[in-house]
Amino acid sequence: MAQPQLKRIARKEKLGRAGKKAAPKPVVRLTAHDLAARQREISVSEFFTKNRHLLGFDSPAKALLTTVKEAVDNALDACEEAGILPDLLIEIGEISETRYRVAVQDNGPGIVKAQIPKIFGQLLYGSKFHTLRQARGQQGIGISAAGMYGQLTTGKPIRIISKTGPTKPAHEFEIQIDTKRNQPVPVSDRELGDWHVVDPTTGEKSTVEHGTKVELEIEATYKKGRHSVDGYVEQTAIANPHAKVSYVAPDGERHEYARVAGELPKAPLEIKPHPHGIELGILLKMLHETKARNITSFLHAEFSRVSGPVAEEIVKSAGLPLSMSPPKAAREQAEALYNAIQAAKLMAPQSNVLSPIGDELLIEGLKKQVTADFYAATSRSPAVYRGNPFLIEAALAYGGGQLPADELVTMLRFANRVPLLYQQSACAITKSVVSNTWKNYGIQQARGALPTAPMVLMVHIASVWVPFTSESKEAVASYPEIVKEIKLALQDVGRKLGLYIRRGLREADAEKKASYIEKYIPHIGIALQEILGIDDKRKEKVCATLKDTLERSRKNE
């Protein structure tokens, strides 16, 4: 009998002994009501708790940097808005290999007691999201997200001390976040009265008149280098020459970055949105929420760069009555108005909403940290993307002996004076640098790579709304308008560098030729002595005349 047939008989006998095969269990199918019962609202805190990598907390090393960055951004913004030259103290203490205490103290205006729990214990709570002007923070997520990360990894609350004036008492809070409700939970709240600090150098005790101190305990790792907290603090000092920054690293080493500008940067003004920067849905929402009585006054009151006559032209072009009430506008009418706005020729947004660093301070900031032979900087005129004004600045430091000549240039990227240390390859700034033709300026560059030169290259974008590629704010999106302006700024400083390099090559070539002449002057004197039969004294005089002529030609060059 064949082997397969024997196997089938054996299986039948086995089934006969075991009885019939058990019937499969019926599949339980959920009803629409069952599915509906599972639905519930997700708070923003819950979302970012599970997706903290979106905020820059995706690794212990980045978590330390992000925590410091968010606290420093808040401190600098607060000081500048209050008209105070910033004086910052950043301290990082090692508790263990994987746990650190971060403290950032400023001399800003302080925070009103009632606002402290919301600012530090509630995500998406802030004063800058609805305003159009240049600022470091925008979304009201940063420092509260850092507190949430500390709470998740160490269980410790965020600690805040704040004082609003010399005669006001200081208040100390310890705050946690209820992630399900996105609400602050004060763990402790006490009045300190006077707030004293001790100078680590002199040991003298002094009273803090106003300011804020934020302290967190987080799970993190500390590494030295350009992409660490050390590099961030150094670059922050470059882009903020008006700030004095003291930094105490985990190893106890203290770094002092002196203030090199005695004045605050020009304060940016708030503007209304530009019509060319809105979308149809936003326009429809604005129409239904405005208090304007008619369409013309709506356009003039709610947008920048729209005068009364221009508003009338837009409304007529849209085929709408001038007296129509905005809240009564239907979707079709809003779309007609939107199309008329996009077709209208309007002035670009005002530039007084921006606060650039400026050519002089760009160079001073670089000189503070980089020793070089040549410095150059440029600030472009304001441009617009999606109705948002922005401005590009670029600066470079070249040569000097301290920078490696055979390595890629050191890139420093900034957005609203904040260093961008990660996602370099995904950033519009890097892509613009790579696509620029640096060989035109005497710099070596491989195809598709950064140029190779002893150079530090700095690019800064100032905007009322920087288009970051993610919530962690580490790279700038490649809008065509932004890329174009970055390239123009790079070409400007590149031309200045090219002139310097070519001048140096000419001088080196002239010096080489002059050295040849100087080398053979004694031989010329001997030859003349033999041909003309002059004495040694006359020969020496001829050589001296030739050397003097050579020196004068060098000076004239």
From TrEMBL:
EC number: 5.6.2.2
UniProt record, GO biological process: DNA replication; DNA topological change
Matches recorded under InterPro entries: HATPase_C_sf, HATPase_dom, Ribosomal_Su5_D2-typ_SF, Ribosomal_uS13-like_H2TH, Ribsml_uS5_D2-typ_fold_subgr, TopoVI_B, TopoVI_B_transducer
Reactions catalysed: ATP-dependent breakage, passage and rejoining of double-stranded DNA
Domain Histidine kinase/HSP90-like ATPase: residue ranges: 59-181
GO MF terms held by the record: ATP binding; DNA binding; DNA topoisomerase type II (double strand cut, ATP-hydrolyzing) activity
Xref: NCBIfam families: PRK04184.1, top6b
Protein name, as recorded: Type 2 DNA topoisomerase 6 subunit B
Organism, scientific name: Eiseniibacteriota bacterium
